[in-house]
Amino acid sequence: MGDGGSAPLHRHEGAPMRVRLEKRPQPSRRWLYLSPLLAVLVTMLAGGALFAALGKNPVEAIATIFWEPLFGEFAFYYRPQLLVKGAPLVLIAIGLSLGFRAGVWNIGAEGQYIIGALAGAGVGLAFYPLDAWFVFPLMVIAGAIGGLAWGMIPGLLRVRFGTNEILVSLMLVYVAEKLLAAMALGPMKNPEGMGFPGSRNLQQYPSAHNADLIADTGMHWGAVAALIAVIFAYILLGRHVLGYHIRLTGQAPRAARFAGVDPARLVLFCLGVSGALAGLAGMFEVSGPAGQVSIDFNVGYGFTAIIVAFLGRLHPFGIALAGLLMALTYIGGEIAQSNLGLPAAAIQMFQGMLLFFLLAVDLLTNYRLRLLPRPETA
Amino acid sequence: MTAPLLAISGLTKAYPGVVANDSVSLDIAGGEVHALLGENGAGKSTLVKMIYGLVKPDSGTMTLHGAPFVPGEPRAARAAGVAMVFQHFSLFDALSVAENIALGMESPPPLRDLSRRIRDVSETYGLPLDPHRIVGDLSAGERQRVEILRCLLQNPRLLIMDEPTSVLTPQEVAILFQTLRKLAAEGVSILYISHKLEEIRTLCDRATILRQGRNVATCNPRETTAREMAEMMVGTTLDVTARPARAPGATALDITGLSLASPNRFGTALKNLHFTLAEGEILGIGGVAGNGQDELLAALSGELRSAPGAIRLKGRPVGALGPAARRRLGLLTAPEERLGHAAAPDMSLTENALMTGAEREGLMARGFISWAAAQDFAARIISRFDVRTPGPDTAARALSGGNLQKFVIGREVLQRPEVLIVNQPTWGVDAAAAVAIRQALLDLAADGAAILCISQDLDELMEIADRFGALNEGRLSDIRPTHALSLQEIGLMMGGAHGMEVAHA
Prior knowledge:
The structure holds 2 protein chains of 2 kinds. By secondary structure, chain A is mainly alpha-helical. In chain A, about 65% of the residues lie in helices and about 5% in strands. Chain A has one domain: ABC transporter involved in vitamin B12 uptake, BtuC. A two-stranded antiparallel ribbon of chain A has the order 1-2. The radius of gyration of chain A is 23 Å and the shape is globular. The two termini of chain A are about 25 Å apart. Chain B is of the alpha/beta class. Chain B has 2 domains: about 230 residues, Rossmann fold (3-Layer(aba) Sandwich), CATH 3.40.50.300; about 250 residues, Rossmann fold, CATH 3.40.50.300. In chain B, helix 11 crosses helix 12, helix 11 runs parallel beside helix 13 and helix 12 crosses helix 13. The relative contact order of chain B is 0.11. Chain B: It is an enzyme of class 3 (hydrolase).
């Protein structure tokens, strides 16, 4: 039913077979791992059809997206980009996945990402041009606190007044965007920028620059932080009682309260951690690849990370892989735009399809398809 | 006996992996009250669904009035004179009795005529019911009357009743039985599904006993003891050791002036509860569902907080403590709802064992879980309580109700509670598992634990409880020793039959 790729399953009335969905006694482990792969495959097929409808060669388009960045002529340039784009996605998605597991829906990571960047960059710019070792660590702390504070707003409102964290966190994204614009045009504007909007470029301020740790690999502090986050999340969810309580709350909230979980504290923890990680991602971005606070600083990592979190099955290692895959479609999509003239919207649709098909294929984890003979009519 | 009204022969229905009915045969005579007995999963529902046209048999035949009877859907069954009262009512709270009944009819007469007919039929059969009352205001017993009247208006030849007394007070049960006897005297056959054996012994002429999809025996329930019938249902002999009389121990739990609003809009507030629970004692709390049982359990488990002094555990105020803190002090609970409250459906038994056992069983150190220890604890519960499952890695939802209940009760019992609160410990559990659970509670009390057993099964409370009290609209009756109580008194403690006893005068 949810499976777009297997049309033959649907037969007409009177055919000898029919399809029935049967709930599995317990979730299938096999499909838990297989369904993301199947989703990627189905996305390639549907995406190919979409590109064909746009008059492009589908095979070439898919190959450009998935092959070119890794093994094409300019792979030496694109491969580091994989880490540059993947790191913030993974870092944000790890934080979101904790909340999603607990049934806490932080949709506003984009806003927390912006505020983290503003706080981090603000500290860096405040110390300019001081040359000291502690500037960058202070920026890291400020970035985390900024994101955490922005994430705590929907958290506290939900705990105190029962507001919906989905709406509040989402709306705070737009507030953050306005704040970003105000900062880029006002207090953080480069005094030597000859009136252009945007802050000083932190790449030119060594004490604040989040440079590649090994030149031209894309391996900056953000990638290191993402890796640490993946490992910590893995230990938290697998071995620590807090991770157990997070999973319990998500799966059976009433059982969690019975077990002794304080729901309010869990909501604050999840929104706080996901906010802090998103803030860190923003801070590493503004002090590294982006370099400056500008009006168009945010490019949607906070939203794409939602897809990454689900594509990775809310599992830390899965998220690491999904983040890299998503980064690949970003980079490959850009190549396809410039080389094949595919519209940007088609690439975004392609990325959206991935989540769409994943959710559809997910059905197979909890249900199995059964072919049954049609019952004889009495 | 005259020719049977309904004759069933060799009816078989298989589902993937299980044969629900394996060549079941029985016949029901006109005017007979026929009991269908069996544990959960014995195939009672499947059989009844086939008679009512909800499920098609794989093989076998049914004849009604001597003619082949192959109902393709419930409508066909109803047209042939088969009516059914389900265990779960399908009524709209916001509509009146007459409107609800009209909704279920093929071509309802004008509401005024229908109301008159409802009144006529309800008076004839001693089921007092005002057709203009709103269903939302009715008691469970009155709602059931709506369902019965809905059936009677079709002039059925065969009335199927699925566990009709589970929501009724003893007085309401008595009214229902008079109605059913009157119907039988007029020639209506009744197929009565229950696992309350004493009821079947008072009401029914014959009983067909199902076990694992086969009919294993037919008996005259009036000449068969409840114990013999239970053993036929289970296929083994059942034994609960009689409990020795004991001197009451020191007070373990002291409830003083416990009042609490329900967090649920349709819940029942607890109103000024007072009682004590002694070491080694089992206190039974009865009452019709929805009279504050869930709220009482939540107040005692710590899911709802109250004034600190309202609940004292061995003299220590615990009313303001959460579930984990109370557990640490030895106050353990097992809620009624297994899936989603007492256990997380999609989690493994190991993870579910960890849910309440983490601290008392030392399954974690400084917040880090020892999965090996948790698995070991789960395995201990499984073996000690004979939980039928492939192993501790199985998801809770894959277990049958009875097995999961054994696991949930076992999880608390094995943690050696000082005070154990259980709500509906054997609800929906087969007879053998129910015996095992009750025995575990008795053993625990014999070891000195104080046990509070909230249950709607009066037989159960009479069997294991030393003292009995009833919840009625959030208030607790006086608590009295069980051995001195009559059924009549219990009914009055539970709130009587909502002023309907006069109906049969």
